[in-house]
Amino acid sequence: LKLQFLYLIVITHLPTPRALPPSAKPTMCGIFAIIQSRSMSEKQLRQRCLFNSSLMRHRGPDWSGTWVHPASKTALGHERLSIVDPESGEQPLTSEDNMIALCVNGEIYNHQKWRDHYKHYPFKTGSDCEVIIPLYLEHGAKCVDYLDGMYGFVLYDARTGTTVAARDPIGICSMYIGKHADGSTWFASEAKALQTDCATIEVFQPGTVYHNGEMRRYYEPRWWGEEVPSARADLKQINALFTAAVEKRLMADVPFGVLLSGGLDSSLVASVASRLVRANPEKYAFPQLHSFCIGLPGAPDTIAAKKVAEAIGTKHHTLSFTVQDGLDALRDVIYKLETYDVTTIRASTPMYFLARKIKALGVKMVLSGEGADELFGGYLYFHNAPSSDAFHHELCRRVKNLHYFDNLRANKSTMAWGLEARVPFLDQAFMDHVMDIGPKDKQPSRPAKKIEKAILRSAFDTPEDPYLPASVLWRQKEQFSDGVGYSWIDGVRDFCSQQVTDEMMGAASERFPVSPPQTKEAYYYRQVFEELFRHPSMPHAVKTWVPKWSNTTDPSGRAIKNVHDEAYKGEAAKL
Fold first, then answer.
1. C-beta separation of 444 from 450 below 8 A
2. What pLDDT score does 1 carry?
């Protein structure tokens, strides 16, 4: 059986890339740091930093950099993916006297504001991330309070022995922290760079800052305490904030794209981006948009994606791969993603292939639609919420855990091939505004014929100048692993069932006491995960995605009976 996965990419070809000003040079990458080693010589320290950092070279294939401070036995490493002007902005970045070193994975959207503010600071590069150094010099560890962006960074001040490390508010960029047996602290964008050396490994939690051994939560908006809001939805404000979030992320002078599955979220990202480019051709200098798809003809996303491509005026191209390709890649996907979660692996496999094909076309950055389902209650099981309060609390839980699931998938599936994904729905201003909207305006209801994410759809329902065809704008939610073709989930479940016996399942809780697998598919993923990651901390660094308020252990939207239009029938619904 040949399966083609649908996913559409809208990319922009630049015949002559127009360089942005020297102050706009974002990079995505992999970072690594060893802080104050007590067991390595300077030579050993450098070698260890170079080797461990190289384990993440897929994240930054354009350049590698290392900074070592012999006296404190501290080393910072960086694997760079350059999005703008590959000839400058190498990391680690350093202060004028080279005594402060900084390695950053991500981009700072309000960097120009701070460059203008610190106009007398002797910037060495055009990197947007360099503004963190003067912010630190003025505000110390509270420098994170002044950043707007997606990032994971480590800063070391050799003058005082101070370490500051932080992760963006909602965990778009991946980051881990480890403790060595000698008492030193290690940081890395991916856990694989820590597992052979550290005694303990933990996920570096989003919205927190590390300062000389102490952790502080710096991102604590009103909704964080989960008090149920009552504000009504302002559709114009939703539209305006989201448009601004997309525009903020169009900073690049390389060909870039928009992941477009044909579902609501990615279609809105693509439509808004397309409008901005068409309205400002001189600003973006993008003469032609091209769309690329990988899909099974007749899959849920295929027809919708084609309609979107035609509506936003892209030139359409089709790519494909087989089910066997996907099955063969599972081990690679699990290694790159560092998870055993079923829905993440299901959705990441086609995205992993897609990212490889996109990168082969010369594209380095894409916009993606992650986050909307968590912010607006888009998953089909939200129809079963027993009350508006319960609905809101579940939204908060999902948003707080995005870094274990959709953010992890978007970041690691794409960075596996040196492709950067930007997520406009998780813009801080947009996210905080939406989370302060009362749940009664968000909560879907099948009996009341109120579709999921109704207020988001309504905010972009402008018949006089439509963003999307009505059939797409008001299309029922499909999880990506379903939408690429139902046969993908069916095929991978059948494959895993053949690898795992009933006897193995019966002893699952003994073999895997931490979060034991509940299905044969979950068992297979967990088995591969523990073959690749033998460190005892690693099972604790993963969470599993299971729908609430439903009698199922399967995360597929089709498992939500009486809600999904193509729900599993009979016993399949209980798998």
1. yes
2. 39
